[in-house]
Amino acid sequence: MPSEKVLEAKKAQVAEVIEVLKGAQTGVLVDYRGLSVEEDTALRTKLREANVKYFVMKNTLLLRAAKEIGLEALEEALHGPTAIAVSSEDAVAPAKVLSDFAKENEKLEIKSGFMDGAVMSLDEIKTLASTPNLETLIAKMMGSLNSSVSALARTLAAIADGGVEIADLIAKKQGEEAPAEEAKAEEAAPAAEETQAEAPVEEAPAEEEKSEEAPAEASDDAE
Predict the structure, then answer these.
(1) Considering Cα of 28, then 29, then 34, then 37, what sign does the dihedral take?
(2) Cα separation of 39 and 101, whole Å?
(3) Tens digits of per-residue pLDDT, 69-90?
(4) Distance CA 39, CA 104 (A)
(5) For residue range 200-220, what is the model confidence (pLDDT) as tens digits?
(6) Environment class of residue 21 by beta-carbon count within 10 Å: exposed (0-12), middle (13-18) or buried (19+)?
(7) Among candidates 102, 36, 44, 113, which has minimal Cα distance to 78?
(8) CA separation (Å) from 220 to 14, 207, 217?
(9) Which residue has the higher pLDDT, 120 or 135?
């Protein structure tokens, strides 16, 4: 029978794992049997670079911790050696790193996983692994923003460089319009003068007729 000291150590270990699982966005369980020391070291390095916590734990203790947070369904996967990778920062990282590593190392077997308190199937883990991780999404977003900013900067630079040319074009356009307006004014002036000159010409014969009639009346009086 385990000593009290051993039991207390196991309880502390389970309590620690419970806190890790509670704080994890996702977790993936794997069977690491068959991996060489070099392969296991390479895997741990990749997980550490992705800020993924990775550890090996006895199935019985892991099951106790899982039951405490409602992940009893993980029991089906808890057979044989089990290692678990969890992340509290990037929901995609554990599945992505392990899936990519398993493609090159068939000895690594993905057994199960969970996300936001729910157990995932193997198909769901594969789908999650194919999703761009947080770092990639941020890089894409920054690339889009940089592209938009660059386009705006080029537009502003073009306007600044072409400002003098635009001003010259405006001045030239105004210069071309001014003579045209003066020419129109000059054409309109003679037309107005001709209109004013025509009015007396039409009245002149009427005055002459009156002057011719006046002597005729005077000669009748003389008779």
Answers:
(1) positive
(2) 10
(3) 999 999 999 999 999 999 998 9
(4) 10
(5) 544 445 444 444 444 444 444
(6) buried
(7) 113
(8) 151, 21, 5
(9) 120
